[in-house]
Amino acid sequence: MSPDSLTRGSARSAAEVNEQIRALWMRAGGTLSSQERAEYELLVVEWAAAIRNAVIEAA
């Protein structure tokens, strides 16, 4: 998943992405490896895009 694709909008809802973030933290036991950190950062960007899209659609 590239950051460019995320700026055009998330295919998933913020709630779906948030659930994946929570699952990642649970699997990691609260401490992220380098690879998990990279995945987390992409998920946070996707989550933020989904929030922005939801606000824009609501407006």
Automatic annotation (TrEMBL):
Q: Which domain of life is it from?
A: Bacteria
Name the chain's protein: Uncharacterized protein
